[in-house]
Amino acid sequence: MEENKIKNNPEVIDLRVVAKKIWDNRKLFYKVLPIVFVVSCAYIFAQPRYYTADAKLAPEMGNSATGSIGSIASAFGFDISNMETTDAIYPTLYPDLMEDNGFVTGLFNIKVVSQDGEINTTYHDYLKKHQKRSIWSYPGKWIKSLFKTKEKTAKGGEGKFDPYYLSESENNIAEAIRADIIFSFNEKTGVISIKAKAQDPLICKTLADSVTFHLQDFITQYRTNKARVDYDYYKHIAAKAKSDYEKVRQSYASMSDASTHISLRSAEMKLEDMENDMQLKFNAYSTINTQLEAAKAKVQERTPAFTMLKGASVPIKPAGPKRMLFVIFMLAVATLATTTYILRGDILKIIELREKK
User: What is the Rg, in whole angstroms, of the alpha carbon atoms belonging to the chain?
Assistant: First the structure.
């Protein structure tokens, strides 16, 4: 009786009928799956392998909020550490530095050496000349070259390189760097993770280390910029004050030697004036030198401290592409598509019946 109800109700799916229909059309699977397997293998095994390496860095958070208020806010997912700092670039914004051409092009000159020693060049030339490509990319590259117009050269003014006026090829390299170098910041732990990807394991490790140092240098330059400007200013005026003092002292010494056997009142008064001027110059030099030492200490104070939590290591196994997973996925998709094709008539009937209701 239940079987009659199922037959009379097209919306009810009888798994036995479905299985029988699929089994009757099994020869279609015998044709589709081997073809999909061969094509998938041909595609994925032609893709070059790549490696990944990562480093973890804990930056100095500046004048972070402490105490019970900071702890309570942190427990609810709020970070108030940036409320008491004068920095414009917080650690949470470090990942956004990869959007800046000035920061990215600063990575062009990183020296990289492959594991076999055959490649010894800069990161820029490595991406431009030493990238392995899939054979499937060459037809598209050839077609694209047919319609390619003359590339515009970048203008930096008198031979200077301008990171914000890149040529097409340099811009493509910058985009490739953005795809291969990834920053992430954990707001709960305050840890910056730097992940690098490359086709060579040693180059991959070198990139992770170099980008870490580049980031530290960038933040250090930013944090100490004003302090270094002040230090250079005090260093300049300290040198001038010392020079003025030395000139007055030499003049005073010469005048004293010349007036040794002279007892004129005018000579004595001139010596007193020179001595007072020398003392004023010395006091000015001493004061400026004190300010110079304070500015030097300020540079050191503003220099951020970084703690390397995890150094990058040379990866042993490639990170991708996942060849077996790709082939299995494609076979699963092909199986689903073939099954849908076999049952398309039944599926359309169910859809039509539901639309009529």
Answer: 36
